[in-house]
Amino acid sequence: MSSNTSARSEGPQPILSLRKVSKNFGAVAALTDIDLDVFPGEVVALVGDNGAGKSTLIKTLAGAHSPTSGSILFEGKEVSMNGPSDALDLGIATVFQDLALCENLDVVANIFLGQEKSALHLDETTMEVTSWTLLNELAARIPSVRDVVASLSGGQRQTVAIARSLLSNPKIIMLDEPTAALGVAQTAEVLNLVERVKAKGLGVIMISHNMQDVRAIADRIVVLRLGKNNGVFDVSASNEALIGAITGATDNAVSRRAKRLAEAETKTEEQA
Amino acid sequence: MSDSMHKPNDSNALLDRSDIRVTHSNSIADSLKASINRVKSGDLGSLPVIIGLVLIWGIFTVINPIFLSPNNLVNLLFDCSTVGIIALGIVCVLMLGEIDLSVGSMSGVGSALLGVLWVNQGWPLALAIGASLCVGAMMGFAYAFLRTKFGMPSFVSTLAGLLALLGFQLFLLGSTGSINLPYGSSMVDFGQLMIMPAWAAHFFALIPGVVIVVMGARIRDKRQSANLSAKSLTSIIVKALLVTFALQAVAFYLNQSRGVPWMFGLFILLVILMNYALTRTKWGRYMFAVGGNAEAARRAGINVKAIYISAFVLCSSLAALGGVLAASRLASASQQAGTGDVNLNAIAAAVIGGTSLFGGRGSAWSALLGIIVIQSIANGLTLLNLSSSHRYMITGAVLAIAVIVDSLARQSRVSHGKA
Ligand SMILES: Nc1ncnc2c1ncn2[C@@H]1O[C@H](COP(=O)(O)OP(=O)(O)OP(=O)(O)O)[C@@H](O)[C@H]1O
Ligand SMILES: [Mg+2]
């Protein structure tokens, strides 16, 4: 287990650094002294149990929550975000876990929400073309971009939310369980997309409960547990070590199950 | 019929026609079918109110043919305009899922200010009207401040405002209780007499059709060159012809009597401006977004507070303007102005016209359609010599029906996945 800050401390400058960021909701300390660095062209996977504080961290970075204490550095400069528009202006794009779409608006309006072209005479045609281009890149299966979002399936909505985040040419993209509702092809497309985004030199923070996806694309795995940093891992780290860090114990349901299976296997081998 | 295409599955298919699961309507018959399906799934638009209007007009005409006489309809249009403008403001706040219960008193204050400043104090007319609108804007700002700063439900803040404004109106008018506006002044003429010349009415009735063709053709070109499906030229022209024919017929019929009041023209102009702002500008898009999901709008970087402020300020300012016009219509600013059913008529008009009480759905046209329904009932019952007691009961029932239709449509949208 390496230290909480990145191992490459003398390398290039991180796009985003968090120093001792805490967030309290009343008596609940959802985040305590979180440190995190994201470098250009790097995919950081953020993992942890339900309620570990992953989404809270993302929302804090997206300007949707303001941190109780600690500092956020963007491209080396300390920033204070007073709202989501500040984060968007910096170039931080976010796909929220609850997607944050307006169900009464159509797909085009949702993709462009907050970034419409020509304020006094919306350019619907251009926006529609851009929407189709973005959606096709994601292999989206959306029948009509002029349908309201309420009529889309969960996965289609997720694709719309992802397309939304790509629109503004961000410097860093944060994806909160982006593939949770996606089909096989669409998940692969999102993972491809993350790789393309990474190749372009953008930073990516991705939350996922799917270790296979995480190992497939992440450069580093940052574990949160009960709102605190609980280790930074290489993708090559063993499953036990990761699960131990996520669940906080070497003896737990997951490890016991693994041990039981292993014992059963050795037994059958002995009998043979 | 269609000069767009019939081969949705080619390699060079249109961008928005590549999904084979969607049936696309290319011909006029197809678009008709599509609109029927839309209505079935609860996307009613202004259909219920138009049906209601036809019913109401039918019944009143059968009972008393005078109802449909051009002269009576011209009076109807005069009466529509003042409360209609107030209803237009209500559309803005309803769009955000908020309400303003004080528009009646606000209009009363607007007319009282006009009387006091213009007649009693001798201010120039424009300045007096401007002052009325400013007071309206300030009141709207106060509601928005209470809503965004303290999370005070607009239901409560505007109820408090209703009482406060009523008091202010009585205070302004003082012991006299009523101020007469001078007959023969341009203000009173505007409210009672000023009528468009026949040629002007016919000219204005031409504009929508021309706009439909010009804009339709431009959008069609743009969409085609962007490889998107586009409406056929035929359907654009048919629509423009239908609209032009209907409007010319209305203008011709009203010109049989006095003609189209300028005040109604002002109302229509405001409706058109509001409709443009709501559907074609960034501000309008944000109004729908905040009404649909305020948190999502906030996370998209929209200044939600500014949207609330704009809606409440517009609503109260339009209410004040409605009051000013009501004063010109009645040639007086009295303690009765804005009391009684003005408040509820304005709110009912917006709802009857099809703007949802639940936020995120509505249109500027609903103010026009709704107020015509309400004024038709009032006017028809007056012709039947029925008192305001009957009028209140019937208008109440119509409002209840409108809200039921709104709720049923909402349920239907949910079950068709369109909520
Ligand atoms: N708005 C809020 N008000 C109060 N408590 C909150 C709020 N948002 C989150 N919390 C609390 O903060 C903790 C972390 O929540 P968070 O949503 O960040 O978890 P998570 O790691 O994203 O979990 P999951 O994997 O289930 O998405 C939880 O205990 C939650 O109850
Ligand atoms: Mg979460």
Task: Annotate the secondary structure layout.
The complex is a heterodimer of chains A (272) and B (419).
Chain A: E1 16-25, E2 28-38, E3 43-47, H1 54-61, E4 69-74, E5 77-79, H2 84-90, E6 92-95, H3 107-112, H4 124-137, H5 154-166, E7 172-176, H6 184-199, E8 203-207, H7 211-217, E9 220-225, E10 228-234, H8 239-247, H9 253-271
Parallel strand pairs in A: 3-8, 3-9, 6-7, 7-8
Antiparallel strand pairs in A: 1-2, 1-4, 4-5, 9-10
Chain B: H1 28-40, H2 47-63, H3 70-95, H4 103-120, H5 125-150, H6 154-173, E1 178-180, H7 186-192, H8 198-225, H9 233-255, H10 262-280, H11 282-292, H12 294-299, H13 304-330, E2 332-334, H14 342-352, H15 365-383, H16 388-415
Antiparallel strand pairs in B: 1-2
The structure holds adenosine-5'-triphosphate (ATP) and magnesium ion (MG).
Adenosine-5'-triphosphate binds next to strand 2 and helix 1 of chain A.
Describe the 3D structure.
- The complex is a heterodimer of chains A (272) and B (419).
- By secondary structure, chain A is α/β, with parallel strands linked by helices.
- Chain A is built from 9 helices and 10 strands.
- Chain A has helices at residues 54-61, 84-90, 107-112, 124-137, 154-166, 184-199, 211-217, 239-247, 253-271; strands at residues 16-25, 28-38, 43-47, 69-74, 77-79, 92-95, 172-176, 203-207, 220-225, 228-234.
- In chain A, the strands form 2 sheets. A 6-stranded mixed β-sheet of chain A has the order 6-7-8-3-9-10, with helices on both faces. In chain A, strands 2-1-4-5 form a 4-stranded antiparallel β-sheet, with helices on one face.
- Chain B contains 16 helices and 2 strands.
- Chain B is an all-alpha fold.
- Chain B is globular and about 75 Å long.
- Residues 1-11 of chain B have low confidence and may be disordered.
- Chain B has a two-stranded antiparallel ribbon.
- At the A-B interface, helix 2 and helix 4 of A face helix 8, helix 11 and helix 12 of B.
- The complex binds adenosine-5'-triphosphate (ATP) and magnesium ion.
- Magnesium ion binds at residues 54-55, 97, 176 of chain A.
